[in-house]
Amino acid sequence: MKLLKLDQITGNEILARPIMTEDYQELLSEGSRIKKEYIPKLQELGITEIFIKDEIVDAESLVILKEEVNKTCRQKVQDIISKHTYRNSKDMIEISNTADHIITNILEEEKVVEQIYDIKERSADIYEHSISTCTLATLVSLKLHMPIDVVHDIGVGCLLHDLGLRYVTVEFDNISLDSMSERDLAEFKKHPIYGYSAVKNEEWLSKCSKEIILCHHERMDGSGYPLHATEISMQTKIASVCDFFDEHISGIGCERLKVYEVVEYLKTFKNVYFDEKVVDVLLEFTAVYPSGSKVLTNEGETAIVIRQNKHFPERPVLQMIADKDGNTIETIVVKDLLEYNNIFIEKVMN
To answer: What value does the mean pLDDT of the chain take?
Structure first.
C-alpha cells in the first residue's frame, strides 16, 4: 500500500483504503479500481491523496487497533467533539467510554506488547489524529506497566488533547509552524489553552487528563508552549511524545514527514525535548520502515518492505524488485535483513 497524490494517479489503480468525504461518507470502497474519468471528479471534491495497492507485492501489515474499531471510535470522537461548545459539554463524558473501548481492544490482542507495528504516514484530520495518539499512548503506558486507571486517564486526555484546534482561526493542515506569520503562529499556539478552558470545570475529567490537554506541547527544556514548563508529569510526557510522532506523520500543525525521519528526530532530541524512556518504548514497537515502503539499499537495489522482524524495527524483511542498474527482478527474491548483515536501507523512495 502506498499514499499517492491525485495528480500521480494515471487510472486503473486499485484502492487500498476507501475514499471518504469530510463528513465520513464513503465515495469509493476499498478494492475499487480508479477509472480515468474519476480523477477530475475527485479533484472537484477536494480529494488530494489516496491509498492504492502496490500490485508488485502483498506486504504483511500489523496495526495496533483493528480497522473497524478505529473507524467506529473516530466517528464517535467526531460526533462528540464537533458538537462541543463552551456552553454544551454534557456529551463529553462519552469520551471516557471511547478510551475504555480502545484500551480493551488493545489488551485483547495476543502478545500486544511484543509486536512491531506498521504505523504509516498519512493525511489525517484531528479526530483520526486523536484516536492514533490515544492508541500509541495506551500501548506505551501498558509497556511502562502503569496502573490501568492511569492508562485510562492518559487515553482520555489524548482523545481530547487537540479539542482547542476547533477554536483556532488559522489553517494548520500540513503547514509548518515556521512558515506561519507571527500572528497566525500566536493564534495556533493558543489551542492548548482553548482546549483546557473548555473542560477545566468538568468534574468527570481527571486532573491528569486536563494537564495533558494543556501541556501536550511542553518540552523538558522549557522550549514548548503555552507555559514553557519544565516540570512535566510522566503521563503528559507520554502524551507529548505520541502526539509529536503522530502529528508529524499526518501533517497536523506541521509538514508531513516519513516515519523514519520522525524516528531520527525523536532519537536526536530525547532527553532534550522528550523523555528518553518514553521515546525508547515508543520506538520499540514502531516499524522504522512500515510494510509496503519502497526503499533503496546500500547495494543500490530497490525493494519493498514486506514484513517486520520482532524486536528489530530497523531490520525488516525485503522483497527485491529492481537491481542496482534499475532492471526489474522478475523472480521472487526475499532478503531478511537479520540474515543479510551487510545490507542496509539507505533511504525511503517516494
So the answer is: 90
Size (the chain), residues: 350
> What's 252's DSSP letter?
B
Q: What does the pLDDT look like over 150-201, one tens digit per residue? A: 999 999 999 999 999 989 989 998 888 889 999 999 999 999 999 999 999 9
* Residue from 164, 228, 168, 225 nearest 199 by CA: 164
Instruction: Give the DSSP H/E element, type plus range, for residue 59.
Output: none
Q: What gap in Å lies between CA 196 and CA 41, rounded to an integer? A: 40
The amino acid that residue 195 corresponds to is G
Q: How many CB atoms sit inside 10 A of residue 349's CB?
A: 10
Would you say the pTM of this structure is higher than 0.85?
Answer: no
Contacts 24+ apart (CB under 8 A), 253-258: 253/165, 253/172, 253/175, 253/177, 253/188, 254/174, 254/175, 254/176, 254/177, 255/174, 255/175, 255/176, 256/121, 256/123, 256/174, 257/121, 258/121, 258/348
Task: Read off the C-alpha cell for 293.
Answer: 515502503
Cα–Cα distance measured from residue 135 to residue 118, given in angstroms and rounded to the nearest whole number: 13
Integer Cα distance of 48 and 32 in angstroms:
17
